[in-house]
C-alpha cells in the first residue's frame, strides 16, 4: 500500500538526519501554519508528536511558532497534557455551526468558545509556566484601512495590500506590522526578524487568550481584536503576513520540524495565487516537512483536505461528518510516523525538499 506520509528535508536537515536519525532532542523549532480546517488532516500526526515524540526529556527549549490555527495547535502542545488539550480542541472545533452568511461577531464568539475549550481551566498557566516549550503567537497589527471594522473600508485596504504585495511583500508594511507574543523572554531565536516590521511582546496569563484569538481572526470573517497591555491597535490573523511561517528560524544546527498540510509553503495570505513565492527558501535548510501524501488525500471525503469553503459547500451535518472522517483517517499518518521512528527507517523515506 502506498505511503500516507511524505517526508521532505532541506540539505541541512538531511545531513543531520543521516548522521543521527530523527531525535526529539535535535528539534529546535516547531512551526504551525495557518489554514483553518486544514489542521484536521494533521490531527493524527499531532497526537504522536505532541503526546509521545516531543514529550521526551529535553536539555534546551523547544520554540513553537505559529499563526492562526497553527498557534492554536501549538498551544495544545505547550500544556501539561497535550493530548487532553487536543481532544478538547478537536471536539469543540468539529461541532461549530453557523447560519448562512454569519456576521463576523458570531464567528468571533464561536471561535472564542472553541479557544476556551482548548485552554481548559489551566491552559494559560500551563503555557506561560511550561518548563521547556516556548510559545510564539504570530498576529498582524493593522493600521489605516486594514484596521477598520467598516466592511467597505476594510475591503479597500486589503485590496490595496494584495495589489502592492504582487510587487513586494515589503509593501505590506504600509498597513501592517508583525506582532509576536511569546514566552521566550530575551532568548527568542526570532528576535532578529527583519523581513517585515516586527515587534515582540511578552505572552502573559492576561493577554494569552486575546493574542491567540487575534492570531486566528481572519479579516472580513471575524472581528479585529484589541489585546490588553499591548500597543493600541487592531490585531488580526497572523496568517495575513505569515500564512505558512517561512522565516529565519534562528541560529544553530537543530531541526525545524514542520508538520504541514502541503510539501510547500505559501509565505503570506496574499501569496496564495503567486506560485513563484512558494519556492523553498534558504530559511528551510534545516526543515523536515511531514505532510500527507497525494494518495492519502485522494482517499479523503471529496478527495481533498478540509478548508473554509466547506462551510459554504456543505450543510452542517455533511461537513461535520466529513471532517470527523478526516480526523479519524489522519491517525494513519501518526501510525506511519510511529513505525518509522521505532524501526529507524525514517531516513530511507526522506526526499529532498
UniProtKB/TrEMBL annotation:
Name of this protein: Alpha/beta superfamily hydrolase
Q: List residues of the PNPLA domain.
A: 54-244
Q: Keywords of this protein's UniProt record, alphabetized?
A: Hydrolase, Lipid metabolism
- Please give the organism: Stigmatella aurantiaca (strain DW4/3-1)
Which sequence ranges are marked TM in the entry? none
GO term, biological process aspect, one = lipid metabolic process
The molecular function GO annotations come to: hydrolase activity
Q: What is any Pfam family matched here?
A: Patatin
Task: Extract the SUPFAM superfamilies matched here.
Answer: FabD/lysophospholipase-like (SSF52151)
